[in-house]
C-alpha cells in the first residue's frame, strides 16, 4: 500500500501486483525514490479524474524515468476510486503520472491492442481517503503554464510512502 500525505489530507492506495505487476513495481519504485514528494495535483476535472506525478509547484516539470509497457489488457476497469496510469496518445508511454478516477470511466478501458483501443492501465484503488479525493475534485481550476484544469490553489503531495498494510513502515 502507498500513503499519500497531501495538503488536503491522507489518501491510501492499494496496488494490484497480481493484475498489473510491471505498473505496480514502476509506481512503487517512484515512491521509494521520493519522486512524488513535493509534487502537485496538476490536473483536476471534477466529473472525471484527478492527476499527479509530473509537476512541482508553479508547474515545474519533473523528469520521469523510462516509459513502461501498457498493462491495460489486465481486465480491470477504470471505475470510481481506481488508480490508473496517465500516458500520451502512444499507448506505451506511461511513466510517473497517474490519476484517480472520480467517476466510472469505462471509456478508458482496454478494448483492443490497437492505437485507439489500448486504454489506460488500472493498477489499484483508493482504500482510504475518498473524501480527500472528492474534496480535491471540487477545487476551482484555471489554465497555467500551457495546461488546462490546473487547481487555482496548489494541492501538494507532502510525502508518498510505502506501508505494509498492518502499520506504517
UniProtKB/TrEMBL annotation:
<dbReference type="Pfam" id="PF00160">
    <property type="entry name" value="Pro_isomerase"/>
</dbReference>
<dbReference type="InterPro" id="IPR002130">
    <property type="entry name" value="Cyclophilin-type_PPIase_dom"/>
</dbReference>
<keyword id="KW-0413">Isomerase</keyword>
<dbReference type="InterPro" id="IPR044665">
    <property type="entry name" value="E_coli_cyclophilin_A-like"/>
</dbReference>
<dbReference type="InterPro" id="IPR020892">
    <property type="entry name" value="Cyclophilin-type_PPIase_CS"/>
</dbReference>
<feature type="domain" description="PPIase cyclophilin-type">
    <location>
        <begin position="1"/>
        <end position="162"/>
    </location>
</feature>
<dbReference type="InterPro" id="IPR029000">
    <property type="entry name" value="Cyclophilin-like_dom_sf"/>
</dbReference>
<protein>
    <recommendedName>
        <fullName>Peptidyl-prolyl cis-trans isomerase</fullName>
        <ecNumber>5.2.1.8</ecNumber>
    </recommendedName>
</protein>
<dbReference type="InterPro" id="IPR024936">
    <property type="entry name" value="Cyclophilin-type_PPIase"/>
</dbReference>
<dbReference type="GO" id="GO:0006457">
    <property type="term" value="P:protein folding"/>
</dbReference>
<dbReference type="GO" id="GO:0003755">
    <property type="term" value="F:peptidyl-prolyl cis-trans isomerase activity"/>
</dbReference>
<keyword id="KW-0697">Rotamase</keyword>
<comment type="similarity">
    <text>Belongs to the cyclophilin-type PPIase family.</text>
</comment>
<comment type="function">
    <text>PPIases accelerate the folding of proteins. It catalyzes the cis-trans isomerization of proline imidic peptide bonds in oligopeptides.</text>
</comment>
Amino acid at each position: 500500500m502507498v500513503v499519500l500525505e497531501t495538503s488536503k489530507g491522507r489518501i491510501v492506495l492499494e496496488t494490484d501486483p497480481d493484475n498489473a505487476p510491471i505498473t505496480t513495481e514502476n509506481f512503487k519504485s517512484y515512491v521509494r525514490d521520493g519522486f512524488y514528494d513535493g509534487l502537485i495535483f496538476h490536473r483536476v476535472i471534477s466529473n472525471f479524474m484527478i492527476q499527479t506525478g509530473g509537476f512541482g509547484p508553479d508547474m515545474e516539470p519533473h523528469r520521469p524515468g523510462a516509459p513502461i509497457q501498457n498493462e491495460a489488457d489486465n481486465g480491470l476497469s477504470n471505475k470510481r476510486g481506481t488508480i490508473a496510469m496517465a500516458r500520451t496518445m502512444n499507448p506505451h508511454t506511461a511513466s510517473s503520472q497517474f490519476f484517480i478516477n472520480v467517476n466510472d470511466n469505462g471509456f478508458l478501458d482496454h478494448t483492443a491492442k490497437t492505437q485507439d483501443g489500448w486504454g489506460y492501465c488500472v493498477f489499484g484503488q483508493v482504500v482510504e481517503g475518498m473524501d480527500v479525493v472528492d474534496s480535491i475534485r471540487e477545487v476551482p481550476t484555471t489554465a497555467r503554464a500551457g495546461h488546462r484544469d490546473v487547481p487555482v490553489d496548489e494541492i501538494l503531495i507532502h510525502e508518498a510512502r510505502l506501508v505494509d498494510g498492518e502499520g506504517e513502515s
